[in-house]
Amino acid sequence: MTPKQIEVEYRSRISEEEYHALIAFLNAHAEDLGEDDKSIHFFLFPDKTLKVTDNISQGSAKITLKLNRIGNGAMFEELEVPIARTDVDKMVRIFDTFGFDHLIEPIVKRHNYTYKGVELAVKYSESWQYHVELEVMINDEAEHAAAEAKIRTVADELKLHIMTEEELTAFTTVLENNYRKNKAPTV
């Protein structure tokens, strides 16, 4: 049996100035994992998130099922299946037929680093604006506390405000409601 792939992930929204300062700091002090720009289609279930990702920078694509939603804890078990980039549109069309909310992030500008055992994705997208994801991958839920402590130590050092569950829920609720309000009617 394949071991679990569990993400312990926290988010921080930052200003444009903080974004550029963080990039400069990480370029000087962290391991640079490179650009990781993506186009992402999100399909929202009440308690899960399904993503179809076209990884533009890496020339690859995948389907990811996160067995949790943002705002329901920082631990996300993920199931990933690589697909051909040429199949992205077909997979989006298949998942659209199920009728779940489908949000699109056309371009997520992203640069990845590793700093003190924490992976940082320094990002910009239309909906989230400038933000950072801090994550540690674990194989067992018993490792959660140590991973969280490591993330919080790095966030404190970098002066990043970790969004609370309440902040995440409020923010993503607004994003989803704006999407529903502005969604073009289907024919």
The CATH class: Mainly Beta
- Corresponding CATH superfamily: Hypothetical Protein Pfu-838710-001
Number of strands: 9
CATH architecture: Beta Barrel
pLDDT average, as an integer?
89
Structural class: alpha+beta
- Residues in helix, %: 25-40%
Give the end-to-end Cα distance, rounded to a whole number of Å.
44 Å
Whole-number count of domains: 1
State the helix count: 4
The topology string of helices and strands comes to EHEEEEEHEEEHH
Which helices and strands, and how do they pair?
Elements: E1 6-13, H1 16-29, E2 31-35, E3 38-44, E4 49-55, E5 60-66, E6 75-83, H2 88-96, E7 101-115, E8 118-125, E9 129-138, H3 144-157, H4 165-182
Antiparallel strand pairs: 1-6, 1-9, 2-7, 3-4, 3-7, 4-5, 5-6, 7-8, 8-9
Report on the architecture of this protein:
There is one protein chain. The protein has a single domain, classed as Beta Barrel (Hypothetical Protein Pfu-838710-001). It is α+β, with helices and mostly antiparallel strands. 29% of the residues lie in helices and 41% in strands. Strands 1-6-5-4-3-7-8-9 form an eight-stranded antiparallel beta barrel, surrounded by four helices. It is globular and about 45 Å long. It starts with 5 loop residues before the first strand and ends in a 5-residue tail after the last helix. The mean pLDDT is 89. Strand 3 (38-44) and strand 4 (49-55) form a beta hairpin. It is built from four helices and nine strands; from the N terminus they run E-H-E-E-E-E-E-H-E-E-E-H-H.
